[in-house]
């Protein structure tokens, strides 16, 4: 006597003792299963996980969702902003030093970018101007400024609406207000401790 039970991947035949070797696999190997699923799933040939998800997103862009990592992007921009401020201060110091230097063409850097851009030229194995500190700093700042300016986090907020001068003025106003508030708070605390 033979009893058949259907499962989702195969048909299993259970044998009684009197009939041996009567199994008939329907989908025992993966190739048969894929061929059966292929007409129903247009992405059957993509591996489940990121490959299949990417295939679906490519076919239907409206279902694609990605995290913005807004807080991490903002933190990164704040670090970059701080680094740029420090580099800007350092650049001012080097510019003052180089404008007073008698070495090579350093005194001309502030008026002629060609001299600054060619500061790495060597004569007889020696740098023309003795060092390339200002040039190296400018190149480092250029890379950081490009990354900072091209950030998707900052671009929507500064898209032609606010200039650097306005931002600087707003920051100065905020700092002034904060300073005045702290002075008032300090005065209030002193008055509370030492009433007149």
UniProtKB/TrEMBL annotation:
InterPro entries in alphabetical order: DUF6594
Biased composition (Low complexity): 1-14
Residues annotated as domain DUF6594: 50-150
Region Disordered, annotated ranges: 1-22
Protein name per Swiss-Prot or TrEMBL: DUF6594 domain-containing protein
Lineage: Eukaryota, Fungi, Dikarya, Ascomycota, Pezizomycotina
